[in-house]
Amino acid sequence: MTERFRAGAGRLCLDFVRTLRYRGTPEELEELPDAAAWGAWIDQLGPFPAPVRPGSAGDAWVVREAIHELLTGEVRDPVRRRLNRFAAFPVPAPSLAPSGELRWQARDPVQAMLALLVRDALDLVTSPDFARVRRCAGPRCGALFLDTSRPGTRRWCSMEICGNQAKKSTYRAKAGIRA
């Protein structure tokens, strides 16, 4: 299966915030334009075995922007209340299938996914790991990621994409090559 959405930011909430790609640039791209895309994101990155079909993407956008504000600045009271409201939704419950496989289920998988995302963000900002959240140094990217490198000096969300582009640009500039 080809993965449609980027993962690997180090925390699920960081992967979710990256669904507004190139945030704040003229190339800004909404990766969750509708309910089908939101469902595809849950299917790819969520814990549920069966496909999830949300009715809309509205709550996903609200939660994503509240999490982004939480991770990047001072949280205003309405955003804090919104985060707390979504965090209070029931989360998925684990169950052991007859095959021995762990499965996750929820009465409302969409609400459960939103609760997981908000709880992950709240856990992150109240943990020592929060000091290692970085913004990608890629000039067009700006995605947030958790720097898990030993020295804590990682610069790019992805060495394969942003890091490679930066190294190519540096090489071209030194060699006098136009892109």
Automatic annotation (TrEMBL):
Family matches, as InterPro entries: ABATE (IPR010852), ABATE_dom_sf (IPR023286), Znf_CGNR (IPR021005)
Highest rank taxon of the organism: Bacteria
Gene3D superfamilies: Jann2411-like domain (1.10.3300.10)
Domain called Zinc finger CGNR: residue spans: 132-174
PANTHER family: BLL6575 PROTEIN
Name the UniProt record assigns to this protein: CGNR zinc finger domain-containing protein
Organism name: Amycolatopsis mongoliensis
Source organism phylogeny: Bacteria, Bacillati, Actinomycetota, Actinomycetes, Pseudonocardiales
